[in-house]
Amino acid sequence: MTQIYKKEFKCTLCGNLSTHEVIISTNTLGWPDLDTRPSEMARSTMYAWIQRCPSCGYCAPDISEEVAKAAKVIQGNVYREQLENPDYPKLANSFLCWSLIQEISEQFSDAGWASVHAAWACDDRDSVKSGKLCRMRAAHLFLRAREKGQKFAKGVGTEEALILTDILRRADQFEEALTICEEALTKGADENVKKLLEHEKTLIEEQDTSVANQSTILFAKVFQRMEEKGIKKKVFTKEELHALTKESEDDS
Q: What is d(CA 249, CA 69) in angstroms, rounded to the nearest whole number?
């Protein structure tokens, strides 16, 4: 269950007071996407992950907190244009503005994640082209983070490679995604990450840009098992489906 309350915040840049929603608690049921987007109910709380001052346009997770160089960045043309860019949903613009602030501060990991969140906001509004641009920006920023030794995943190396691969695949950047994926597979990823990377490789080869999580891998194995057994029926009993799923999990 998600619990949210409204709270008044004072913008650190202009002093304006405005009310924003704050998450007290939430939960997830199911696997996250391979780019880490959580399942419901947390999936639908993104509007509370970023705030926008209605007076000066400062965007941040908490507009009452001062961030280095933010005052200068929000006055720039790039920021002002992004703030009201009609090609993106409003929520995506807010995340991208925060990404610009973090990028100028050379916090490339945080800037990258803000761009990923912008992509998710685009996905929710079926803004395919804008979501692709957000992901390309995120990939660029994560590569900058790598160069600077900034972590952007809990487990560096192959886990970071998995996130990069998924972001690039969903942005139609199949060649670059395949290069990162194959490089990671040669570096001895742990079994779970290896299976996810192998699934990503299959999706890349099929030029599939759809969202994927661990459940899609499991069901792909279920359908493969059905083909192997020559099963063509479309309706299953609970027991039959459980048996097929169990066999597929054992293969994993």
A: 50
Contacts of residue 110, defined as CB under 8 A and 6 or more positions apart, other chains included, come to 102
d(CA 185, CA 177): 12
Asked if 178 contacts 145 with a C-beta cutoff of 8 angstroms, the reply is no
Count CB-CB contacts under 10 A for residue 208.
Answer: 15
pTM of the model: 0.85
pLDDT tens digits along 179-224 = 999 999 998 767 778 888 998 999 999 999 999 987 766 555 544 5
C-beta contacts of 93-99 below 8 A and 24+ residues apart: 93/118, 94/50, 94/51, 94/52, 94/59, 95/49, 95/50, 95/59, 95/121, 96/134, 96/137, 97/52, 97/57, 97/59, 98/50, 98/59, 98/60, 98/61, 99/137, 99/141
Query: Distance (Å, rounded) from C-alpha 47 to C-alpha 111?
Result: 17
Residue with the two structure tokens 């661990």: 214
The secondary structure of 68-137 as a DSSP string is: TTHHHHTTSHHHHHHHT-TTS-HHHHHHHHHHHHHHHTT-HHHHHHHHHHHHHHHHHTT-HHHHHHHHHH
Distance CA 65, CA 83 (A): 19
5 in helix, strand or coil? strand
